[in-house]
Amino acid sequence: MSAIETLDLxxxxxxxxxxxxxxMRVEEGDIYGFLGPNGAxxxxxxxxxxxxxxxLRGTIRFFGEDLHRSRLAVLARVGTHLEGHAFYPYLSGRDxxxxxxxxHGAPERARIDELLETVGLARAARAxxxxxxxxxxxxxxxxxxxxxxxxxxxxxEPLNGLDPPGVIEVRELLVRLNREEGITxxxxxxxxxxxxRICNRIGLIRDGALVREGRLDALLxxxxxxxxxxxxxxxxxxxxxxxxxxxVAGVAATDGALAVEVAAEEAHRLARWLVEADLDVLxxxxxxxxxxxxxRDGFAARGAGEGG
Length: 308
Ligand code: ATP
Hints:
This protein is of the alpha/beta class. It is built from 12 helices and 14 strands. The C terminus is likely disordered.
């Protein structure tokens, strides 16, 4: 089942469209990375999903239910921690959670202690929040998001601003929640390296539209294609010749080498072809691109990987 599905969402600030015909699908069990450059529309989409602003047009469904038809029931299954949500600095982490839980019903102390344990704050639970690192505050935010036992977490830039240990702490926590508790996670990020580490599916947004969505492994290593890194004694000539070869799907110069893509069933031809083309080969290795390489190559336009 889809945890989140949007159909043809439009939204605009004043006259300018921030979101256009946005279709995205987060499957149950995903850690879905919603990626895109600054100003692409990530935060606006998050706000639409959380019902903080209403779309001009389009549908949002969580676990098959329409957000705008049954808002309270739907949002009860969603946990979020909004950026800028402030904790009381002079209260402890635990007291902040108790206070928050009180606003939303009766605080269950046992649940709060269990969550503090889950997010690795049991030992710091009684220390004032003002003494917490940003990573600890972010984890306290996740504990708060988890209080009502949501099936899905919707997080806007959860790794933003964290130092490397903080990034690791939050990343590991999200993976654990996903694997051990079956919680689906939608997170936005402009950090491609981090997204690559934790997400199983990604959606790429540009100028308010989703231009690519799919499984990360299929995008990085499509089963029907093989990618190689090649160095020769004359890469400029090699690039030109490869670009003319009918069996080569793509060739691009990357840091001091050529990235070449061929259909998997043609892969065996490459080495022989290079030799026959009288190109002196210095290096020929299978190459698995990073997410960043695909972005740079404009893969969104070419459409590698699976569709949905
Ligand atoms: P960032 O990574 O910089 O936060 P983003 O992908 O989250 O970017 P949004 O903040 O959703 O992008 O912005 C999408 C577009 O809408 C941008 O062009 C932005 O300038 C515009 N925008 C965002 N908020 C407002 C607002 N309150 N009023 C008018 N325009 C806005």
